[in-house]
Design a protein that fits this description.
Rev_trsase/Diguanyl_cyclase; 54% helix; 2 strands; GGDEF_dom; Nucleotide_cyclase
C-alpha cells in the first residue's frame, strides 16, 4: 500500500483499501465481524465456522 500511496497519492490508495475491504467482506458470512485495524490492515472474526472453511478463507488472502 505504501508504494501505491507514494506513486499515485493517498486518494488512489484509499480506493484500493476500499476495494480490498469490499472483496474481503463479500467472502465472509454476515455474522462475521470484519474491521479495518490499521492503515492497510484488516481483522476478521469468523463465527460458526469449522477449521477447514476458515483455512480456505485465509488462503484466499
Amino acid at each position: 500500500m505504501k508504494a501505491i500511496n507514494d506513486n499515485y497519492g493517498h486518494s488512489i490508495g484509499d480506493r484500493y483499501i476500499k476495494k480490498a475491504a469490499m472483496t474481503i467482506k463479500s467472502s465472509v458470512q454476515n455474522e462475521d465481524v470484519f474491521s479495518k485495524i490499521g492503515g492497510d490492515e484488516f481483522a476478521i472474526i469468523l463465527t460458526e465456522i469449522d477449521y477447514f472453511k476458515a483455512d480456505d478463507i485465509v488462503d484466499r488472502f
